[in-house]
Design brief:
four-stranded antiparallel sheet; 20 helices; six-stranded mixed sheet; single chain; alpha/beta; elongated
């Protein structure tokens, strides 16, 4: 949920506004930061990783405020209820925890530890401290903890920018102790200090100097600090900070890790373990690779390392505790994917029937063909999302039982930097209705809301044949009976397909409708479509009818009423 920028005291609402502004700033700069990512690995994903980390933090903070489910698109919530507003301590800890569990890449894990450092100070809510000095102390703790989290800190990176911001904030905090400066003044000083330090990074790190770019992670941190100042002061930064560079930046041709002489894999996982075990883990992983960052505490950690043997890195986590959400990325694959141009938005639809797959494909969707009794699993949906090669994906599962699988695939795709929304379609006809209003040129949230509304406004029916005697909501059916289902429940039990289909149509149109969609199975004759179209035309003059062929593996008949 976006919040209007305005001056705030250092409270929970300020943290909420900071999160919203930081996410927006990183979203605007995401591609620019990706383009200048040359260190420690030129894999063009620093902007994406920072954005995804901030998005995870923002979802956790929204949940703390009772704003609804963390993974739903803006404007689409369900099961929400009012909750008391969190305190500053609760808000900042939720913000840091969300960043920890969703941290992506080297830069994202460092950002998570920076936010944890802020939370360690602000979350304690020490009595009697003025907000300015308290914020200065929080920024100092953040930089200290970030340096400690990195096995071998390197200057000219995000750490350098964080350190400079802390020193500038501390100087302003000293003035605040004398009642001269406010928390907003401390934030402004930190922001200015970070910008100045960022401009110096090409002269501190040879890889940046050769490419003619500033540090990508530091660039993102400047955006986050600018958002903090804006949240506390109500003043917008004069210029988009992450677009400023020390020298003109070409988009470098970035070799994969092997070509650069570094490890071939990035390994990331969450780990439940004690402090002592994590200390031993750090030593073990340090001997396996580089870019080692371990962040977190209180029994929960986020581990990031670059290695040639990913299995050994995961095994080290097993020895230390319980690793989960394990993600292994081969840098060569990542670079090849990054070099190919992405479209802005795509739709992925799960359909049962070759004809339906062709129909959705003509509408621009990437399709996953589901066969009777063989629903797609998470890897199949994830592969389709990747094949769509888009920054934003709308996923249409097409069946209620696939919603959990779709959500799991969406979560994994988000880890790849793709923004995914799952629209809970329960039938192919709801997917067709959603596709009909899909607007790839509009905003993502507005598109998702419109598609969700179209799917939800479509009642769906299906004609099936009973395989055995069963108890249904319409009574007992025998094997071979024709079943008419409406919105997933058996409403009609008949002996013939045409009569049952007409009975289902009559019930569905009894509550109104403007358009009937018929999807015929492979064995259903065209005469049935003509009969049903004539029925609709005779009984409901204002209702239009469209007919499609579902093709092999589709149900005998699907009916949609909008």
């Amino acid at each position: 949920m976006a919040h209007e920028p305005g001056p705030h005291t250092l409270d929970a609402e300020a943290v909420r506004t900071w999160s919203s502004l930081a996410l927006a700033a990183l979203g605007r700069a995401r591609e620019d930061i990706d383009a200048i990512n040359v260190y420690p690995v030129a894999d063009a994903d620093t902007g994406t990783n920072l954005y995804l980390t901030a998005e995870s933090a923002d979802r956790a903070l929204a949940a703390a405020f009772g704003d609804g489910p963390a993974d739903g698109p803006a404007g689409v919530t369900e099961g929400t209820s009012a909750a008391p507003a969190p305190t500053l301590s609760e808000a900042v800890r939720a913000y840091a925890h969300g960043a920890l569990i969703g941290a992506r890449g080297n830069s994202g894990t460092i950002l998570a530890q920076l936010l944890r450092g802020v939370a360690d100070v602000l979350g304690a809510e020490p009595a009697g401290r003025a907000p300015g000095p308290l914020l200065a102390q929080a920024l100092t703790r953040a930089a200290e903890e970030a340096y400690q989290a990195v096995a071998h800190p390197v200057e000219g990176t995000m750490l350098t920018v964080a350190g400079a911001a802390a020193r500038a904030g501390t100087a302003a905090g000293a003035a605040a102790e004398a009642a001269v400066a406010t928390a907003a003044d401390v934030a402004r000083a930190a922001y200015d200090g970070a910008r100045a330090a960022l401009a110096e990074t090409p002269g501190q790190l040879a890889a940046l100097g050769r490419a003619g770019v500033v540090d990508a992670g530091g660039c993102g941190l400047v955006a986050v600090l600018g958002a903090l100042w804006q949240a506390l002061s109500g003043q917008e930064p004069a210029a988009e900070p992450v677009r400023g560079r020390a020298v003109p930046v070409p988009r470098p041709e970035q070799p994969c890790a092997e070509e650069q002489g570094g490890p071939a894999y990035e390994v990331i996982y969450l780990l439940e373990a004690g402090e002592e075990a994590v200390g031993e883990l750090r030593a073990r992983l340090d001997g396996l690779g580089d870019s080692l960052v371990v962040v977190g505490g209180d029994g929960l950690w986020n581990v990031h390392v670059h290695v040639d043997d990913p299995g050994a890195a995961v095994e080290a986590g097993v020895v230390a505790g319980r690793p989960y959400r394990i993600r292994i990325t081969h840098f060569g694959d990542e670079r090849r994917r990054a070099r190919a141009p992405r479209v802005q938005r795509a739709v992925v639809a799960v359909v049962q029937g070759e004809g339906l797959a062709g129909l959705c494909g003509e509408a621009g969707a990437t399709t996953v063909l589901a066969r009777p009794g063989e629903p797609p699993a998470v890897p199949e949906l994830l592969d389709a999302i990747r094949r769509a090669h888009a920054r934003e994906v709308v996923l249409l599962p097409g069946a209620g039982e696939l919603r959990t699988v779709a959500s799991a695939a969406a979560e994994q795709a988000r880890a790849d930097g793709v923004r995914v929304a799952v629209i809970p379609t329960r039938s192919a006809v709801q997917g067709l209705a959603a596709l009909a209003v899909h607007d790839p040129e509009g905003s993502f949230d507005e598109d998702v809301v419109a598609m969700t509304a179209a799917a939800g406004a479509t009642r769906y029916g299906e004609i099936a044949v009973a395989e055995r005697q069963s108890f249904t909501s319409a009574g007992i059916c025998q094997a071979g009976d024709v079943l008419g289902l409406i919105d997933g429940d058996v409403a009609v039990i008949g002996s013939g397909l045409p009569e049952t289909a007409e009975a289902v149509l009559a019930r569905m149109l009894g509550s109104g409708g403007e358009l009937v969609t018929l999807v015929l199975g492979p064995e259903v004759p065209d005469a049935l479509a003509a009969r049903l179209e004539a029925y609709v035309q005779h009984a409901h003059l204002a209702v239009d009818t469209v007919t499609y062929r579902g093709g092999r593996w589709s149900a005998p008949l699907l009916i949609g009423v909008e």
